[in-house]
């Protein structure tokens, strides 16, 4: 079999055989197929797509390219969640302790941020002392005792996806539905959970720009999970504006804590939907019972106490969750003033995410260090009426020189008008 023939077949719109797909994933993982051939193949897939069967075989080949985790000891209680990536998306920090407080067992491997989207591990590591590496024994014990452990992607889990994802990131082939579906599902299936909730984000801050594409991706991932015997549901959610008000690692930890302590709004709404869907899958609860239990866990403080126990178990300073002055603090805080009066009609979430990265909150390259205190707190969001000179947002950084570029980009993310825009839903649909 020759890789060049497989590339040509896909370039011409052909359907690959199971053997061809397994050959290319095996060869790419062991290094016998070089990056340039894999990049050409990914671009052919980007333009010609893959059938459902091809996508399922690709997922299976990537899932088995390395180790898989066995969570059978937790039976039907083992749960996982995955977001396709967004700006201000701190939902794992909230959903994880809620679900753990209510009997779920969340053994989660999370990623770091890259480009304009943030990563859960970076957010957690902004808490002084937090360790995102645990031995397999400590990981399992913590999930057993507290119900949640979150570590960075480690070991030899889906090495094919690790290589292919990094290649796609620099060859403009990320936003392909079969490639995203197989990337996400290979990781989730290898990580072993029985019940999985996917948060498929769509809009200006997401890889899927439209609701229709978000739905296609959600349906594909749910079908793959079910075919592998897992309980899967996908929420299609709005990422046209950043989620919540805070963007940036320590700032997002603070906002997550506020929600766990009772703060209402869009963030609580989405986390309630994610957590209740997961609890319905793993316990078989009705939707109404699951929502009731989630609200109780939030309002009674049970979910917050579970977060304190989780953070402390992984070496983090749990006092920082109550006394935010113990979290990283920025030396510079700059208010962005409104250049005019009017309604904020649109806020390009991707630009807001990049602006936060420019302040130091994210990486442009994998090796870049992170400023945990950096980021943005939004005072105004899409739909708000603003007077000229009012503060739109606060920019936080430890390097004054970063303010100018970040502020210019932030202001370019805003569209103004004389009338309020129509209110978009937060959750478009749940695919089961
Ligand atoms: N998240 C993933 O894990 N993989 C993709 O391809 C896109 C988003």
Report strand order across the widest sheet. Answer: 3-2-1-4-5-13
CATH architecture descriptor name of the largest domain: 3-Layer(aba) Sandwich
Q: Name the structural class.
A: alpha/beta
Q: Please give the count of helices.
A: 16
Number of domains: 3
Low-confidence stretches: none
Please write the CATH class name of the largest domain. Answer: Alpha Beta
* SSE ordering: HHHHEHEHHEHHEHEEHHHHEEHEEEHEE
Average pLDDT = 94
Cofactors, ions and other ligands in the entry = uracil
**Based on CA inertia axes, which overall geometry fits?**
globular
The largest sheet is:
6 strands, mixed
Distance between the termini: 39 Å
Brief rundown of the structure:
The chain is of the alpha/beta class and 432 residues long. Helix content is 45%, strand content 16%. It contains 16 helices and 13 strands.
Description:
The protein is an alpha/beta fold. It folds into 3 domains: 3-49, Transferase, Pyrimidine Nucleoside Phosphorylase, Chain A, domain 3; 72-177 and 187-321, Nucleoside phosphorylase/phosphoribosyltransferase catalytic domain (Pyrimidine Nucleoside Phosphorylase, Chain A, domain 2, 3-Layer(aba) Sandwich); 325-417, Aldehyde Oxidoreductase, domain 3 (Alpha-Beta Complex). The protein is built from 16 helices and 13 strands. The strands form 3 sheets. Strands 3-2-1-4-5-13 form a 6-stranded mixed β-sheet, sandwiched between helices. The protein has a 4-stranded antiparallel β-sheet with strand order 6-9-11-7, with helices on both faces. A 3-stranded antiparallel β-sheet has the order 10-8-12. The relative contact order is 0.14. Bound molecules: uracil (URA). Uracil binds next to helix 9.
